[in-house]
Automatic annotation (TrEMBL), chain A:
The lineage of its organism: Bacteria, Pseudomonadati, Bacteroidota, Chitinophagia, Chitinophagales. This is Uncharacterized protein. It comes from the Bacteria.
TrEMBL record, chain B:
It comes from Chitinophaga terrae. It comes from the Bacteria. Gene3D superfamilies: 1.10.1740.10, Winged helix-like DNA-binding domain superfamily/Winged helix DNA-binding domain. InterPro entries: RNA_pol_sigma-70-like, RNA_pol_sigma-70_dom, RNA_pol_sigma70_r2, RNA_pol_sigma70_r4_t2, RNA_pol_sigma_r2, RNA_pol_sigma_r3/r4-like, WH-like_DNA-bd_sf. GO terms for molecular function: DNA binding; sigma factor activity. Residues 14-75 form the RNA polymerase sigma-70 region domain. This is RNA polymerase sigma-70 factor, ECF subfamily. Pfam families: Sigma70_r2 (PF04542), Sigma70_r4_2 (PF08281).
Amino acid sequence: MDYKLISGLVEKYWEGETSLEEEAILREFFSTPHTALPPDLEEAAPLFSYLHTEAVREVVWPGEETKVVKLSPVQHWMKYAAMLLMALGLGYGLQHRGERAEITETRITAQHMEDDPRYALEETKKALRLLAKNLNKGTTQMQKLSYFNDATEVIEGK
Amino acid sequence: MSLERFLSQVVPVRQKLYRFAYRLLGNEEDAQDITQDALMKVWDQQEKMADLQNAEAWCMRITRNLALDKLKSRKYRRHDDLDHAGELPAQHQQNPHAMSEQNDVMKKVHATIHALPEKYRTILQLRDIDGHSYQEIAEILDLDMNEVKVNLHRARKAVREKLQNLQVYGL
């Protein structure tokens, strides 16, 4: 058998100059055993034999056929439930935020008063002024009530 | 990307992606996982599909990146599939001794190719086993076409030298 063509292709292969078709010819050639090969082909034989075996080896995806499962919006209930829970949590948090801020402010003021007596005195005066301002607000009404009581007693002849 | 497009362009490539992942990882289970992950990633990045000229190359690039990430992960220990090389069908060899000898040779070639740097090995496999063109390999590996040719030439040269050593010195 004339190996000149194959030897030429092998040389081209080592130089990286073969086309895909020529490489296929080489793999095909070396897929069967040959006797009395020239040394250059003897050297290349194991590689091409391996490449051929790997090329025809079946590496098959063992998984099942792909099934497309379409989910209806109702089947996304967990998503909606999570959104609802998050909204409730946020609402609850915002609602209690104002209350917490107020409590914190009161605590800070109390702490401040404990630390600074002058501040405590000022705050007490402020509170007493507020009390005093509102203290006599009802007296006029009470006086009118008193006149009314006196008049009632006179009429009843007591 | 519509579901129809995914089913018509991406899903049929799955077999190739699996084969590619298997070559990189040498392990069927990991190759399946990586292929699934790659398909998920392709679906997540579906808006890029419209701008692509070669969706298949893009899918293979994603698969390769995921496989390389897995190989790099500290926990991962590459499953050496030399045993699989030993199972290669020794065609036309009826003699048990000749079969055993042939298997031994196959294992040595397999080990030689797997000892190459990852880039060389992948280029060699894509070209000489899967029969991809230079252009396709360049797109899959995101390389310049000349770079592919140079690396392929170096890979073949390295394999040739190693095989010569094996044949002459039995190293």
